[in-house]
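Lecture 7, part B: from sequences to assemblies.

Below are the input chains for today's worked example.
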Amino acid sequence: MRPVYLDNNATTRVDPKVVSAMLPFFTEQFGNASSMHAFGSEVGAALKRARQQLQALLGTEFDHEIVYTGSGTESDNTALLSALETQPGRDEIVTSTVEHPAVLALCQWLQKTRGTKVFYTPVDSRGRLDIDAYRKALSPKTAIVSIMWANNETGTIFPVEQLADLAHEAGALFHTDAVQAVGKVPIDLKTSEIDLLSLSGHKLHAPKGIGALYVRRGVRLRPLLRGGHQERGRRASTENAPGIIGLGVAAELALEHMHDEQTRVKALRDRLEKGLLQRIGNAFVTGDTENRLPNTANIAFEFIEGEGILLLLNKAGIACSSGSACTSGSLEPSHVLRAMKVPYTAAHGAIRFSFSRESSDDDVDRVLDAMPTVVEKLRALSPFWKAGQQAAFEPTYA
Amino acid sequence: MWDYTDKVKEYFYNPKNAGVLEDANGVGDVGAISCGDALRLMLKVEQDTEIILAAKFQTFGCGSAIASSSALTELIIGKTVTEALELTNQDIADFLGGLPPEKMHCSVMGYEALRAAIANYKGDTWEDDHEEGALLCKCFGVDEGMVERAIRVNKLTTMEQVTHFTKATGSCGTCVESVESVLARVNADMVAAGEIDAALAFDPARAALPQRRERVKSSPLTTAKPQMTLLQRIRIIEAAIEELRPYLKADGGDCELVDVDGDRVMVRLSGACVGCQAASVTIGGIQERLATKLGRPLRVIPVPPGH
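Predicted structure of the full complex, as structure tokens:
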């Protein structure tokens, strides 16, 4: 049976075109870009082209605005730690309660070890940022704001341009973790107020181990890694040539498929959601359905637990993910769904389906076929489920 | 993905005795939906003989919670109430061929539901008296509460003592810092309460000093061998088990190597390890230790005593 892969927010398949573009840089053009000989200069030229390809996807004006890193997490860490050093008299951070751990865990560590003040802007039941609370958190002490472009669990998109404007009014830098957004939604940084933007290759069909940080021209940056002149001294380390070149091709392909992502992939996602809600009671979509990534569906199935759903779907050849506690080894369900005040009865049973340009109608049919039986089976086992007598939790979408 | 045994998968995919038992005369509810785990155990007990004629369950929880609940019903049907009460959570885990350390609480939930259901049958209520803390040592399944109790009761002040008493940090060692911070905190409390002398209290700064290592005279170039012979592997396994035995003996247990068959290592636990609630975690710890020493994955299988 052909496997159905609907966990593209976790990672994507590397596009075969990306792989073939990378291969020569392992065994033939393996030189160090810094070397004076021909081995080095060949690589240098390829890196330059790759940078232009990524520039096109991000809509940046200058090639030196891109700093390659090892991951989205490294980009996030670089941005926040740098801002705390470069903004004199400012030592506070404003972020949100639903950020990725790459930002949240760093902020918690800064609070604990350096006494840094961090404001976590709350969200409403649809996952939308509380703009009033955000305004109030900004102050002349704010060094940097870090708000994700799109949430990895629900796909909810934040109004980053408006948030960046407000941050600049307060004199603070604005960083966005755009790991889930890059390649899925159009981005044009040359007309944007955003100062720093983090991205990761493996979310857009490039390999793992390559990321980038956009640093707007004029924004000061303190490196996280010292020890070399690479990336204009802003990220020491021999360039990951195959990774950078792979990310370049992946960026070009993402741009080519952007329309497909926005139309066909979105239609697949919508058909899956509609179909599941028609077939299964006591289930609802979480997140802001008005402003969402086109590829992400997060559906909470009440009175059952996510790990069981994943195991049964896996048996049916379907791969997706859950924010359930049991899959991570902790007792608390997803911090994102808890921040949205999704009740425990539903948060434990929330399942994320994330599509890509490789997804098909057949994938949707397979899930629609399998899911009702899975839910029915687990509900029959659940002490909290009494068919027909349950009052469903109604998310207040006010 | 969790490393579930085939038996856990079998009992999750096709659970036995799932559903509502209409004429139950003993019902136990444990867990809560907020924790992501809840179990209702329903028993039908024959009044004269006190034999459990039927048992059914309903579980909200992960794969191993459902498998543990089903295993529990299989274990108790046909037993008297008194016999059933002799079961421990380890029996549930053993029945399933073991559970990952992070999932041992699923078997504890079964153990508690059984007590709650029997108390309900007898007209009593069962009080949940166990407390858990964060899981510190994953190799041996030691949580913060266990470490803290061992430190207080035995007035422990060194990490070596903590390892001897609780086994925590005894295998991979990645939890050393978190166990040290518990030891430092509890010792500081004990000094403040006048229970131990400040000079004896654990000093995290000294513990963080780099450790000297014995210099190895031979060069890796001359000793590296592409493939180990079976005899060489057995010697390494024996030596590793010898290193672990003092910890097991400190708890009144012991372990011996029975056989090695490819990647399967058969061991026999004895003494206090037999029937110990943490035996499967001990086996997991031994497995981790042997895999590290041999530099390849393997499976440690406990052989029942007397075989």
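Note for the exam: The longest helix of chain B spans residues 230-250. Keep this in mind when comparing with the next example.
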